[in-house]
Amino acid sequence: MTDQAKPVRPAAPRAGLHLADRPLLWLVGGALAALGAWFALRGLLPVAWRTPGSPPLYLAGVAGAVLLLVPVAFLLAKRTGRGGAPPAWMFAHVLATVPGAVLVGIHSAGRLEQPPALLLLALVGLVATGAWARVRTSRAMAATFATRWGNFRPPDAATRAALADLIAAKTALLARLEPGAAEGTFSVTLGHWLRHPLRAAAYARLSARERRLMGSRRAAGLVQGRWRQVHLALAFLFVAGIVAHVVTVTFFAGYVAAGRPITWWHLAEW
Questions:
Q1: How far is it, in rounded angstroms, from Cα 30 to Cα 127?
Q2: Domain range annotation of the chain
Q3: Fewer Cβ atoms within 10 Å of its own Cβ: the N or the C terminal residue of the chain?
Q4: Beta bridge mates, 252
Q5: 81-114 residue pLDDT tens
Q6: Separation between Cα atoms, residue 17 and residue 92, nearest integer Å
């Protein structure tokens, strides 16, 4: 008597790091509530927690800046192609940005009339555009890909001829930029920009021209097509502002204090 063959059940997919929409909104909402409570109650806190540059606020700023460097590391890892698992980096990106933003807000000591407060505006924009993209724009992108059947229609003869010439140019350039790479899956990384900046720039221009011919950004719409550029621009402004802030308070403490006592660690009082 032979055993009856049993159907083999497919293995369940391995769960990866993923932050669902609702926990993300709770996380952002909790951060906003914490900042609101701190600003409302800071008058009841010890003097050190209300004095700009005091040791606890200085350390809060340092910790916040370190956490906010995680998204920068994610960007570098993504652009160099050596970052490992992208979902894990994205998970760390979100979980580091939100508490980092809270710590930077606490570091401000509520002095929103000072120029460094502009960094908080950029930070709010970063969190807002990131959360919006994760919760709303990602769904819109999925819907665009799934429902815009016109995007999958073959282009007209003139466009096909232009695309053929363009792909031939990209393939020839790619042989000098990254020999052995496939044109259909290749993207320029930070390493290419550092090693071959002119070739990388030329390939990026060809890729942008290809996107224009395909009309992918027009099909996606303004929000889907431009949100990432806005997010990256805000990130650049924020990082540049952080660097400028660190340099000024460290080496130009006298200028920053403007006659007031210097309460933070510094190297020079210029």
A1: 13
A2: 21-145+221-257, 159-219
A3: N
A4: 269
A5: 665 566 677 778 888 888 999 999 999 888 877 7
A6: 9
| Phi/psi at 199 (5° precision) | -65, -40
Residue carrying structure tokens 């979100």: 94
Q: CA 144 to CA 251: how far, in whole Å? A: 51
Q: Is 252 helix (H, G, I), strand (E, B) or coil?
A: strand
Q: What's the CA gap between 112 and 105, in Å, rounded?
A: 10
- Mean pLDDT, to the nearest integer, of 3-32? 64
- Of the candidates 103, 115, 122, the residue with the CA atom closest to the CA atom of residue 65: 103
Separation of alpha carbons 93 and 77, rounded Å: 12
What type of residue is 178? E
Query: Which among 232, 63, 224 has a CA at the least distance from the CA of 151?
Result: 224
How far is residue 124's CA from residue 68's CA, in Å, rounded to a whole number?
A: 13
